Amino acid sequence: MQRRTFHAGPLIGLSGEDLPTAEGSGPYPAAGDLDEDFLTLLTRAHDAQVPLVLSSTQEPGDDVRALARKGRRLVAAYVWNRSAYFHDASLLDPLGVLCDRVAAAQHEDGLFDIGNLHSPPDTSFAIQDLCLTWALLDADDEAATGPHREVIEQILRKAGPALASGGLHTPNHRFEVSAALARTHQLFPDDRYAVRIDEWLAEGVDATEDGIYSERSPNYAVAVTNPSLLTIARLRDRPELIDYVRRNLIATMFHLEPNGEVEAVASRRQDQTMRQHVSRYLTQFRELALRDADGRFAAVAQEIADRDAGELGDFLAEVLEQPFLATRLPAAAPTPDDFVQDYSAQQLARIRRGGRTATVFGGTDFHDIPVIASGLSTNPTFFKLRQGAAILDSVRLSPQFFGTGHFRSDGLERIGPATFRLSDEVKVPYHLPLPPSHRRTDGAYALTPDGRFYASMDFPHRPKHYRVLRTAVTVAEVADGFDLTFELTESEVLLAIELCFRPGGTLTGVDMLDADGNYQLSTGTGRYTVGGDWIEFGPGNGDTRVAMDPGERYTQLNGHLTPDGLRVYLTGRSPLRYTLKLRTSG
């Protein structure tokens, strides 16, 4: 049964009047409105992927998501009349291998094991690609791909009911599953799919007014939530969902670095210690630029294309599905590059002055949920600074206070136009004798947490005597950089401040501690230089050597919190008031 959902192959060279309008896909651009440079870029990038796929169809380590994406890459090349592989029969056997591997991996209940067992959300990632692949082949309607379509259709029909009845784990999974069901329902309608989508959407979208999703993760915003909401909006006639994406893209502009990286320190997912790049947002910024005639979004989309970084070829399939994405962008408008912007949802502030940017972060979950776990924000980095190519990826503080680990601020307070205060109070108890009513003659007390460790001491019922450490860090923008003023009171402890610079530059004015990229600034100032860009830091605060203590939560499991890069340490002892002056070349 043919369901022509869009017409992929003969898009280019024809006017909008010559082409059918695909239901739910948006209008076709007229020939004069096509962004030829954009299409050439995607075609070149996509064709470069094909040999890599052809050489790896039997890769044993590929999971179903990888197999489905490889199949999508082959099919986009096969159906696209500007590709060097257009209707190239040499793609068909490899495509058959990929389809058969996916089918063989599918359980009888319709689900796949992708890390998690019989996983509806992980299955949904593959199903989205397979739906797009099937629809591209169906629109192309070549007899040679009939067997491939049959295999894919069987997979989709088998998976749909499982997605409509199964569960999930994380906030973004609700939208990934719903988008997979929306795609499947478009191809092979089933009322159960529509009902389940409505159930998930009835829970609401976990986004703040300033565009931050609850997971605070650029990775999951760009890869899951945003594209899924756009798909559901298009296929299920839910235009109100587009506004969540719009707000997230506005927030993303304020989280952008001049080199295209997206700030992720506030994330509650694994990307809180990883680098993210704006290239993955290409079609999202492009779609909203075209929908809204927004020149700022157009500027970001064009900058991504001009950088030509990342796997841009993967966007070709999306453009074949939604040809209006190939329309020329509206005129570019300036994007934010001179601002102080704070986000209460993640207790984070962004400061940008042209090529100089800074991030102040005080929003870890550690004070509400003092554990290290997936889904929590625990990154102890509280300040970042970059001047052009000179990048200070992390500033951290570690007092040696009963193994409690790094300083993590309990929130972020704006105390001036470009001045912020971070603060924390850590209390560690010494436990006094149990009251008579809770004593046991057999000594068999409950195994309970002290806050740092467990013991059979019935800690909750014991009076306590506390040792306290209070820490405050004031971050103030000055004319040529930033002043970070550290104040530690109440207890006498050794401490270390860690500056971690990105590899690739040169350090001067510091002493090497070892061959592992560790240095110390004892006196004067140091400088980190990359080309003509530099960050100067100091003054040194003595030559006492103090190790960074990640805390017992890490050391008990032989874990660590050592960031990658060139690490410079400044040390001291509390009570302490010390101002670290960071100056830049800009």
TrEMBL record:
Listed InterPro entries: Chondroitin_lyas
Residue ranges of the region described as Disordered: 1-27
Gene3D superfamilies: Chondroitin AC/alginate lyase
Tree of life domain: Bacteria
Protein name, UniProt field: Uncharacterized protein
